[in-house]
Design brief:
Shape: globular
Helix content: 10-25%
Order of helices and strands: HHHHHHHHEEEEEEEEEEEEHEEEEE
Number of strands: 17
Strand order of the largest sheet: 5-4-3-6-9
Distance between the termini: 45 Å
Largest sheet: 5 strands, antiparallel
C-alpha cells in the first residue's frame, strides 16, 4: 500500500491531518497499526472494532504476499459491502481510503466481467474515487455501470446418425434395406442476461419539486384531497390524491411547493387515479402530519438528490423497494430530510419539515 498516497488523501478529507508523513513499511508492519498507534488517526476513530482491523490486515497481507486466500477474502469483503455505502459507519472515513489505496491497482487491472463478479466492491470503489474531496489525486479508473453481456455457450451440433429400417419388398422378400436419416440439430436456447439488482437506497426514488396549482376535497372520500401538481412536465400538472384533510386545511394547500414521489405505480383511490405521492413527515402515532418542503427558490420539476447515493431511479417502484427504502428516509435532528444521515439537496438547498425532527417521511 502507498502510505504517502493514503495520507495525501486523508489530508483532503481531514484538513487537520499532520503534513509530515510517518515512516511506515506496509510490507513489514500491519496496516491496522495506522489506526491503533498513529495518534492522529487514533483520535479520529477511538472505538474502531478489532474485527474490522483484522479483516483489513488479512486483505493487505494477502496483496503483499499474493496469498492464495486473496480471492476468498475479496469475496468476503464484497459480501460485507452488500448493505453498506462506506466501510465504516455512514460517511467517508480513513478506512475507505486505506482500502482504496490497497485495491487501486487490482481494480485497474480487472475487466468488466471481473468487476461485475465483485459488484459491491466495484460500486463502493467507484463512489470513493468520485468523492469531490479527493478527485484528481489519482487517475480515475473508467468503470462501466452496465453489466457485461452473458457469454453464450455454443452447443455442439449432434452428428448425423444412421438408422436402419426393415421393409418388405413387393416380392415379400426379407431383405433389409438401410436407410439413413439425419437428426435435426437442437435449437439453441436463448439465455437472458443477468442484471444486478441496484442498491436498496434512496437513488431508487424519483423525488421532484412540485407546486400545488389546484386542490379540492375528494367527491367520494371525506379524508382525501385531489390535487393538481405542476412538476414541469409537458403533459401538464399531475393528479395526485392525498389523505391530508385531517392535517392541513384546504386554504393552506394551494400554491404550496411540495416534494412528490413520482415513480409509484398509478393507483385508483376511490375512483380517481393518483399518479404519485406528496411526501410528508409524521410523528409516531400519526396525529401530526406536515409537508416536507423544498426551498422557496427550488426549481419546479428538479430532482431532489443525495450526494452519497447517486444513480438512476426505478422506472416504477416495487412495493418491496418502497418499504425497504422508506424505513431509512427520515428527518434528522435539524428537521432536514435525509437518508441514513445523507441530507437531501436541491439547487436552492435542503428540504425540511417545519416542526418534526427524527420522524419518518412517507
Amino acid at each position: 500500500m502507498n502510505v504517502e498516497l493514503f495520507f495525501n488523501l486523508l489530508s483532503k478529507v481531514e484538513p487537520s491531518t499532520p503534513t509530515t508523513v510517518p515512516t511506515f513499511d506496509t510490507t513489514k508492519e500491519k496496516v491496522s497499526k495506522l489506526f491503533t498507534e498513529n495518534e492522529f488517526i487514533k483520535s479520529l476513530y477511538p472505538n474502531i472494532d478489532s474485527n474490522t482491523l483484522k479483516s483489513l490486515d488479512e486483505i493487505s497481507d494477502a496483496f503483499n504476499t499474493q496469498d492464495k486466500k486473496k480471492e476468498v477474502l475479496l469475496h468476503k469483503f464484497n459480501k460485507d459491502l452488500l448493505t453498506k455505502t462506506f466501510v465504516l459507519n455512514e460517511k467517508l472515513s480513513a478506512l475507505d481510503l486505506v482500502y482504496y489505496c490497497i485495491l487501486y491497482s487490482w481494480m485497474n487491472e480487472l475487466n468488466d466481467k471481473q468487476r461485475f463478479t465483485f459488484c459491491n466492491i466495484t460500486r463502493w470503489f467507484n463512489l470513493i474515487q468520485n468523492q469531490k474531496s479527493i478527485l484528481n489525486i489519482q487517475p480515475l479508473i473508467s468503470i462501466s455501470v452496465v453489466p457485461p453481456p452473458v457469454e453464450k455457450k455454443e452447443e455442439k451440433k449432434p452428428a448425423a446418425v444412421a438408422a436402419t429400417t426393415s421393409t418388405k419388398t413387393e416380392n415379400n422378400n426379407d431383405k433389409k434395406v438401410e436407410q439413413t436419416t439425419e437428426q435435426q440439430p437442437k435449437k439453441e436456447k436463448r439465455v437472458a442476461p443477468v442484471i444486478a439488482e441496484p442498491p436498496m437506497d434512496i437513488s431508487r426514488f424519483e423525488i421532484r419539486v412540485g407546486k400545488i396549482v389546484e386542490c379540492e376535497k375528494h367527491p367520494n372520500a371525506d379524508s382525501l384531497y385531489v390535487e393538481k401538481i405542476d412538476l414541469g412536465e409537458k403533459e401538464g400538472p399531475r393528479t395526485i390524491v392525498s389523505g391530508l384533510v385531517k392535517f392541513i386545511p384546504l386554504d393552506q394547500m394551494l400554491n404550496r411547493k411540495v416534494l412528490v414521489l413520482c415513480n409509484l405505480k398509478p393507483a385508483n383511490l376511490k375512483s380517481i387515479k393518483s399518479f404519485g405521492m406528496v411526501l410528508c413527515a409524521s410523528n409516531a402515532d400519526h396525529t401530526h402530519v406536515e409537508f416536507v418542503e423544498p426551498p422557496a427558490d427550488a426549481t419546479i420539476g428538479e430532482r431532489v438528490l443525495f450526494d452519497k447515493y447517486p444513480g438512476e431511479f426505478d422506472k416504477v417502484l416495487k412495493p418491496t423497494t418502497f418499504d425497504a427504502v422508506s424505513a431509512d428516509f427520515k428527518t434528522d435532528e435539524n428537521k432536514i430530510a435525509s437518508f441514513k444521515g445523507d441530507l437531501s439537496k436541491t439547487s436552492a438547498g435542503p428540504c425540511v419539515s417545519k416542526t418534526l425532527p427524527n420522524t419518518l417521511i412517507k
